Amino acid sequence: MCEASVYLVRDNEEEKIMQDVILVRPEGDTVFMATLLGEQKMVPGRITRIDFLKHTVFVEEKPTE
Fold this sequence. Notes:
The protein is mainly beta. It has no helices and 5 strands.
């Protein structure tokens, strides 16, 4: 399987917010994620990096206005 871990990047700090992710989909100013078991999450931000070798996705938090 090719599940990934998703990290939220906030103030140059990386925090794992979800693991075993099988779907990552940008939706405007948010990123939708889902796991194999059906857990879902939407995070305000944008994808900044995907590392296929390490199965990681990095989402930069959207700054609050």
